[in-house]
Every structure is written in C-alpha cells, then in structure tokens.
C-alpha cells in the first residue's frame, strides 16, 4: 500500500511540475517577454519543476522494481 502511495505522490508532483512549466512558458511566449526578465522566484519554480520532471520517472521505476522484488520474486536488487 505504501508503494502505491509513493507512486501516486510522484504522479501528482509530476503533473504539478508540468503545470508550472507550461504556465511559465505560456505566459512568456504569449507576452513576448525575455526569460531573463523573470524574478528569482519564478526561476526557482522553473528549475525545481525541471528537476522533478527529470528525476521522478527514475524514482518511480526504482519503486516499481522494488515492488516486483518484494511481491513477485524477481531479482532486480538481489546480488
């Protein structure tokens, strides 16, 4: 049950970060402004969202492999 909850939290974080990326990109594209004129807060939101988009699929695959090891007897993490 805990692994399902971790998957669900990862999916919601991934969708939230994609929302931030699309919103910031859409506002900047629609107003024809330069990205360098954004505030530091918006840059930090964008950087954090990009890091989440890049790292969460890797973490989800690790959790899935752990789930298969524990429940179905596979040998991803066995030496």
Could you characterize the architecture of this molecule?
The chain has 79 residues and is mainly alpha-helical. The protein has one domain (9-70). 80% of the residues lie in helices and 0% in strands. It is built from two helices and no strands. The longest helix is centred in the C-terminal third of the chain and has 33 residues, at 40-72. The mean pLDDT is 87.
What low-confidence regions span 5 or more consecutive residues with pLDDT below 50?
A: none
Average pLDDT: 87
Helix-residue proportion: over 70%
The count of strands amounts to: 0
Number of domains: 1
Which structural class should the secondary elements be placed in? mainly alpha
Describe the sheet with the most strands.
Answer: none
Quick tags:
about 80 residues, mainly alpha
Quick structural overview:
The chain is built from two helices and no strands. Its main location: mitochondrion.
Chain-wise SSE layout:
Layout: H1 2-31, H2 40-72
Helix pairs in contact: 1-2
């Amino acid at each position: 049950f805990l692994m399902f909850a971790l998957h669900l939290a990862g999916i919601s974080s991934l969708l939230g970060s994609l929302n931030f990326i699309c919103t910031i990109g859409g506002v900047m594209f629609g107003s024809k402004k330069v990205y360098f004129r954004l505030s530091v807060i918006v840059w930090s939101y964008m950087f954090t969202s990009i890091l989440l988009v890049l790292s969460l699929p890797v973490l989800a695959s690790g959790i899935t492999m752990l789930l298969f090891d524990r429940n179905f007897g596979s040998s991803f993490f066995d030496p």
